[in-house]
Amino acid sequence: MKKIGIIGAMQVEVDWLRELMKKEGETETVEAGGLEFQTGKIHGKEAVVVRSGVGKVNAALCAQRLILQFNCTNIINTGIAGAMAEGLGVLDFVVSVDAVYHDMDATGFGYKPGQIPQMSVFSFEADKNMICAAKKAFENCKEAEGHKMMEGRIATGDQFISEKPVKARIAQNFSPACVEMEGAAIAHACHLNGIPFVIIRCMSDMADDLSSNGYDFNEAVAARLSAGVVEKLVEAI
């Protein structure tokens, strides 16, 4: 039986899913590793929803605990991101093909940017079945009407991208669809444990000058839209 772990970095990214779970039936909150894991069901599927906190280490620790302590069979990362790909706008979506670290730099030892020394893979590939399910979920999500979903690479780093020169460097090195701060770390943990995963992100900004694109407003709207697609995805898995 599938048990789906759902990770959002911030409270706004998981609140709606937690409320949805409560409406469906009994839930239990388990405190572990400084986090609150809410267990219950979403559309009859066993699920665990958790706010990991921002950044790669928080995200990886959270994913590992979902796998080892809560026995999750699939993991979904939901939330917001900065758009990078051409044609992708605010409140559009990205579903991960793979994920990389844009701030890993061992080039001094002959590795290419983003490559983790002595690892057999450069990027962490998302589960193809979950990608397909995510695309169908997007098509069936009324809240997402008028927006687009793009398959692409997620670039992750412990850095909020808001300057055009930084954005240009990441684009040149990794050609990602979007940039954020947790996805690759979750993907990394899932890869090492053999757990299928997918990352769904709704664009809150253009990863450049925040003053020009209403980030404060977009954050809440984008988080809610992403959670809406995740609800449909859980139903489809």
Q: Can you tell me about this structure?
A:
With 237 residues, the chain is an alpha/beta fold. It has one domain (3-236): Nucleoside phosphorylase domain (Rossmann fold, 3-Layer(aba) Sandwich), CATH 3.40.50.1580. The chain is 35% helix and 28% strand. It contains 6 helices and 10 strands; from the N terminus they run E-H-E-E-E-H-E-E-E-H-E-H-E-H-E-H. The chain has helices at residues 11-24, 56-68, 128-139, 164-174, 183-193, 215-236; strands at residues 3-8, 28-32, 35-42, 45-51, 74-83, 93-101, 124-125, 149-156, 178-180, 197-205. Helix 1 runs parallel beside helix 6 (215-236). The longest helix has 22 residues, at 215-236. The model has no long low-confidence stretch (mean pLDDT 94).
Which descriptors would you attach to this protein?
alpha/beta, single chain, Rossmann fold, 10 strands, 237 residues
What's the architecture in CATH terms?
3-Layer(aba) Sandwich
> What is the H level of CATH, i.e. the homologous superfamily?
Nucleoside phosphorylase domain
The radius of gyration over CA amounts to 17 Å
Q: Secondary-structure element sequence?
A: EHEEEHEEEHEHEHEH
What is the compact description of this entry?
This protein has 237 residues and is an alpha/beta fold. It has helices at residues 11-24, 56-68, 128-139, 164-174, 183-193, 215-236, and strands at 3-8, 28-32, 35-42, 45-51, 74-83, 93-101, 124-125, 149-156, 178-180, 197-205. It has a single domain, classed as Rossmann fold (3-Layer(aba) Sandwich), CATH 3.40.50.1580.
